[in-house]
Amino acid sequence: MAKRKRFVCSSCGRVETGWTGRCPACGEWGTMEEQVVDTASGPKGTKLDRGGRTMPALALSQVPSATSDRLDTGFQEVNRVLGGGLVKDSVTMVTARPGAGKSTLLLQLSEKLARRGLTTLYASGEESPSQIKGRADRIFDRLPDKVYLLATNSMDRVEEEVRRIKPQLLVLDSVQTFEKREFPQRPGTPTQTLAVADAVVSLSKSSPQPMASFIVGHMTKSGEMAGLRTLEHLVDTVLFLEDGYDDRLRMLRASKNRFGYTGEVGLFQMGEKGMEEVMDPYALFLTKREEPVAGAAISLQREGSRMIPIEIEALVSTAYEAYPSRIGDTIKRDQLNTLVAILEQKAGLPLSGKNVVLKATGGLAIKEKVCDLPILVAIASSLKNAPIDSRDVFLGEVGLTGDLKKVDGLDQRLKELSRFGFRRAFVPAFTEGGSREGLEVIPCRTIGDVLKEVLRS
Predict the structure, then answer these.
(1) Distance between CA atoms of 160 and 156, rounded to whole angstroms?
(2) Helix (H) / strand (E) containing 15
(3) Are 254 and 263 in contact (CB under 8 A)?
(4) 51 located within any domain
């Protein structure tokens, strides 16, 4: 059997015919891993024909439509992100920073499916069965019988257990810790990781009984999924479990989904009983106050198909140094400086000698331009020490001229605000005003018009 050697960078995937101490592509040292490649000729395409089925080319109009059955995961937030539930023969990659709760979430999901009589095989290459059982004892009142634990680093053992148990769900935690016997490389190298992922895809797609799979992946320091981009192409869905908002809040976000929309977000809180769904984001992200306060303004930000309330808080103080501070933990400094300049030039507010500190409640990142208006209102409110009614909402991008720009999905945002009992919504001028189911819509042309109405200045 003809074989040859090649060297692949474990950081970027660059392939070289000879070993080099430093990767020519990414510049990393000591990342070139040796691979043995079989160059013998043989039948090709077997891995593409899942289940050994071969078909001639068909016209698009002649291809039969496929309907994928979905499983209710027991988590409404997970169902939302997946596009309506878990497809029975799908492969989903889940990645997060260490300690974010990805293993806990998947163990809870396994338990919820076990309640409905579905069998799960939880294969861990990082933890022992006793460690996983200890977590289960903490978060479950009753341990499920249909969740099987397998502690191994061998993907071959996992395949044997899948054929023996015939589960409806497979969890592989994590893909970088498993290896295939036929490859000499150590676990975590590009060859082993891709081989293990391909084996999971083959098991899920070609098994006589449909089986959904979750693959846990490591995350790099830069916040991206570790390994080659090829790994993302192999799977059907890629989910990121994001933390860092506050001590408990987690966001499950889909960056790829063959069965639904990307960008969908599920909200969770880490509690004593594991991951708890956030069913009412308004109670989480909005501060309950008995009296209005200065320096706080509310808006609605789109996250996937849902609207998340975002409360902007601003603090303006006198600067005793030559250069005032501009601090925003959820917004870029250049963007904050631009908005402050608009307030100075177009609304006539004296901010040149003032420090401005900005944040969003819950640590949410400010991503939409629709938040320009509440940011400016919050800063102006803090400067003048003029409280803002907590039932007022501000929606609008603000241009360098001080004019309010069009808002995408405004009707959907107004319906959401009306449903939750807000009193007034300040929007761009070309929006139809009046009352919408108890919500007073106030069109304004410029930031000055908004401030005159809100601050009575």
Answers:
(1) 6
(2) strand 15-16
(3) yes
(4) no
Left, alpha or beta for 215 (phi > 0: left; psi -120 to 50: alpha)?
beta
Answer yes or no: pTM beyond 0.85. Answer: no
Q: What is the distance between the alpha carbons of residues 127 and 307, in angstroms, rounded to a whole number? A: 38
> What one-letter code names the amino acid at 389?
D
On whether residue 7 sits in a domain, the answer given is yes
Which residues, 6 or more positions from 31, have their beta carbon under 8 angstroms from its beta carbon?
Answer: 9, 10, 11, 23
Give the helix/strand (H/E) hosting 334.
helix 333-346
Give the least confident one: 9-18, 198-207, 237-246: 9-18
State residue 33's pLDDT score: 79
Distance CA(104)–CA(368), nearest Å, equals 31
Largest CA distance in the chain: 85
pLDDT level of residue 54 (50, 70, 90 thresholds) = low
Q: What is the pLDDT of residue 79?
A: 94
pLDDT of residue 200: 95
429 shares its domain with 406: yes
Residue with tokens 């901010």: 351
Cα angle: 188, vertex 193, 198; to 5 degrees: 165
| Average per-residue pLDDT for the chain | 87
How far is the C-alpha of 238 from the C-alpha of 94, rounded, in Å? 6
Query: How many of the other CB atoms lie within 10 Å of CB of 140?
Result: 16
User: CB of 427 within 8 A of CB of 395?
Assistant: yes
The tokens describing 373, both together, are 């208006």
Within this chain, do residues 119 and 25 fall inside the same structural domain, yes or no?
no
User: Do you know the residue count of the chain?
Assistant: 457
Distance, CA of 89 to CA of 212 (rounded, Å): 5
CA distances to 75, 313, 316, 364, 396 from 326, rounded to whole Å, are: 41, 14, 10, 18, 22
Name residues whose C-beta falls within 8 Å of residue 323's C-beta, 6 or more positions apart in sequence. none
Give the C-alpha separation, 249 to 172, whole Å: 25
Q: Residue 78 pairs with which residues in a beta bridge?
A: none
Integer Cα distance of 146 and 30 in angstroms: 44
Percent of the chain with pLDDT over 70: 91
- pLDDT greater at residue 10 or residue 398: 398
Same domain, yes or no: 357 and 238: no
Answer yes or no: is 49 within a domain. Answer: no
CB distance 215 to 177 below 8 Å = no
Residues facing residue 446 across a β-bridge: 403
Q: Are 240 and 320 contained in the same domain? A: no
Instruction: Judge if 339 and 438 occupy the same domain.
Output: yes
The domain containing residue 154 runs over which residues?
69-278
